[in-house]
Protein: ParA family protein
Amino acid sequence: MTLSFRRLPRRLVVVARKGGVGKTTTAAQLAMALAQIFGIEVLLVDQDPQANASARVGVAEGEAPRTLNDVYLWVLQHPEFGIHHAIHPTTWPGVSVVVAEEALKFRESEGDHLMDLRLRLAFERSAAELAERFGAVVIDTLPGTGALLRNAILGATDLLVVTDPEPDGLKGADRAIKAAQSIKATQHPDLNILGILVNGYDASLGEHQRCVADLVAAHGDLVWEPWVPHRADVLTARGLQVPVQRIKANGARDYVRKLNIHARRIGAALDLQENK
Structure:
């Protein structure tokens, strides 16, 4: 099956092989940052059965009439069905979402070539609707490996790895990069592997400094600077289901300033023009 992505907005998939590194928060915050900095509408696709990204942007469980699981079930059965049928509004300005649900976990067992194509096909079916409304798409994924993650990568144009400055995080980042390179080499030659974003960095911890140095030694320019700091205000925003930009505190402002540097770098890769 040959699919054309020419009319579609570019799609950033955010991945991590290790849980607990702040991947979902980073994906949601990057969606918000892209919307603000570039003056566009951004679609956040929650592909993790835990549906944390959906909750993060203020969508309660059961609130959306259709989910990404519905997309995966229907896209092969109904020729007219695309991902735009499952788009739901959020409380975050400029950000809409396709929500996840726990039943998505059952798609993991459908690891055939048709599963690999479902998200890609759902995007292609909705090319006109997405191109008219959205400037970019951000896909949050579940940690680890499997059919859902491979499906998300094959549906994306660009890939960003998120990790933390811990020994297990380093191993996860290395495995994630190698997995992405393997998919690029064998299934998706146009995939743009952007780099590795280090999240939750504490400059006062020698262990964090050593881990980042090891990561840079292993992956060089793929490791993005600045390291995104650990800030309690990010947890506050998560609990309130609001963007960190709304928290009026020094820690929140420092986090947003550093994340926005990465958002601008991503925007350049996605061919976006900054909002003046």
Q: What stands out?
A: The longest strand covers residues 192-198.
